[in-house]
Amino acid sequence: MRRILMWFADFRENDLERIKHQPIFLPDGTTRALSFFSDVTVAPGEAEQRREDLRPVVVLTARLNNRDLGSAISEIQQQLTQKLNLPKGYTIAYGGAYAQQQSFHELLLVLMMASLFVFGVFMFLFKEWLLSLLLLFISVMGISGSVIALYLTGIPLNVSSYTGIIMIVGILAENAIFTVNEYRFNIKNGGEVDQAVLPYF
Asked: What's the pTM value of the predicted model, to 2 decimals?
């Protein structure tokens, strides 16, 4: 005996007799009803209780059809607020693509704060506005190169790649600090501009 699971998306038409007469295509192109091959019965479902953080949860999933995520979530939140009175101790958390979108907003704030801190480090070390802004511009330009690389390789912009972009800004800033210090050291000791710059190309 082999167990075969069949899933019908339209539950309004999920009738037992309809399932029994569901046509099954054979290799020769003919069809036979599902009841010809097996017995079709209704069996009670298996209860499953999920927990997160030691608390029971109920997960509801849905797909968007000709709707954008932002307006759909806003309407869902509005309807739940108006029509659903949760007992004490119950909460609603929105996950999936919406949670990932919220993570992108938080990572964007982290990226902006990281750029600001990098600029502060440049100002502390070099004490020159123009040089600090130029080095910050070079560091942030690494973001465009990273996005182009993700596009060419077909890798989606997710939380992991976003975190890598933030790290690239810090790596470019660190290289810029060492490059400028080495350049100034060579110039201070009587070296020529070409000799001070050439090793870094």
From this structure: 0.46
